[in-house]
């Protein structure tokens, strides 16, 4: 597998917190570290990209911190791959392709949620 040329840009964001709307105090946080590639994290990344409201509530999140359930309830199976996205109160699988696509998908979701909340045009 060849090295993703956009990976360094993503890794450079580790620890960054940005206020995306100073008036409403919405902010984003990036936590990204390089890890050994495993079956659960084949891209060799541990990441969490999140949008938060003024009260700190997570509104959007792309991460691979844990497996997700494919179905609700106690019989719901856990998915092997851990990449997923949180959007308001839902969690869905996310197909990681490369760092640039992850960043683009994250910002697209951030702008969509902010627009739904009336924060941005």
Taking the alpha carbons of the first and last residues, their distance comes to 40 Å
- Approximately how much helix is present in the residues? 10-25%
Total number of β-strand segments? 6
Provide the number of structural domains.
Answer: 1
Mean of pLDDT:
86
Order of H and E elements? HEEEEEEH
Number of helices: 2
Strand proportion:
25-35%
Would you give an account of this structure?
By secondary structure, the chain is an alpha+beta fold. It has one domain. The chain is 20% helix and 30% strand. The chain has two helices and six strands, in the order αββββββα. Strands 1-2-3-4-5-6 form a six-stranded antiparallel β-sheet. The protein is globular. The mean pLDDT is 86.
Quick structural gist:
With 121 residues, the protein is of the alpha+beta class.
Secondary-structure blueprint:
Layout (H helix, E strand, L loop, with lengths): L6 H6 L4 E5 L4 E9 L10 E8 L5 E6 L20 E4 L2 E4 L5 H18 L5
Antiparallel strand pairs: 1-2, 2-3, 3-4, 4-5, 5-6
Key phrases:
30% strand, alpha+beta, globular, six-stranded antiparallel β-sheet
């Amino acid at each position: 597998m060849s090295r993703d040329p956009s990976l360094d840009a993503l890794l450079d964001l580790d620890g960054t917190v940005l206020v995306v709307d100073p008036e409403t105090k919405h902010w984003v946080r990036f936590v990204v570290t390089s890890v050994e590639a495993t079956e659960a994290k084949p891209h060799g990344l541990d990441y969490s990209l999140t949008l938060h409201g003024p009260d700190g509530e997570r509104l959007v999140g792309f991460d691979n911190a844990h497996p997700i359930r494919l179905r609700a309830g106690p019989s719901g199976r856990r998915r092997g791959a851990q990449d997923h996205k949180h959007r308001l109160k839902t969690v869905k699988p996310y197909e990681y392709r490369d760092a640039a696509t992850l960043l683009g998908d994250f910002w697209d979701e951030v702008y969509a949620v902010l627009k739904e909340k009336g924060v941005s045009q």
